[in-house]
Amino acid sequence: MTTVEARPAPFTFEPASTALLVIDMQRDFLLPGGFGETLGNDVSHLRRTIAPLAALLAEWRAAGLTVIHTREGHLPDLSDCPPAKLARGAPSMRIGDEGPLGRILVRGEYGHDIVDELAPAPGEPVIDKPGKGAFYATELGALLDERKVTSLVVTGVTTEVCVHTTVREANDRGYECLVLADCVGSYFPEFQRVGLDMIAAQGGIFGWVADSTDVLRALQEES
Ligand code: C5J
């Protein structure tokens, strides 16, 4: 067992039954000039997660542990995109429109894929998800069962949307979730702070919160 300093209390996990989940680190959300920025967001709030996540990925892979990536997006004919999601808000561009990095959030487009710095290694599963949560309409639950995963170290974007939706459902499904504050990002600093506080509140109502350096230290002590 490995123990990480975390809030609201230390987080203990068995590395062999723990997956590092990397949520939606896609160009559409992170690249300057991409979809996220066209909506008026400051992508630097998300881009600060890339370096610590790349360092953690390197160590996690070196230890031979499970990594799973997700991508939010839709089929080219948008048949898996609920009309309500397509119509939501009043953005300058919508899902499926031709954006600066290809059709926005459409599978197979340049912008839909993961940023170069965090490209999946050969053999690492990439879960394509039409929703905000990583379990809805995906094979993630079956994959975790198959690999006997019981704990998740959760990273990615955005903290209050896809990370939160996934952690809440993972918690309901019985997974113990450690969310890494420096490896999750929100376009809104206030949502980042409150989103993390919500996870750890009430004795860890959805999970635990730590920094990637806490996990790296625990992995190094282990080896
Ligand atoms: C959003 C996500 N924010 N990956 N997607 O629309 O959090």
From TrEMBL:
Domain of life: Bacteria
Any Pfam family matching the protein: Isochorismatase
Transmembrane segments: none
Start and end residues of each Isochorismatase-like domain: 18-210
InterPro entries: Isochorismatase-like_dom (IPR000868), Isochorismatase-like_hydrls (IPR050272), Isochorismatase-like_sf (IPR036380)
CDD domains xref list: cysteine_hydrolases
GO molecular function: hydrolase activity
Keywords: Hydrolase
Protein name (Swiss-Prot/TrEMBL): Isochorismatase-like domain-containing protein
Native source organism of the sequence: Phytohabitans flavus
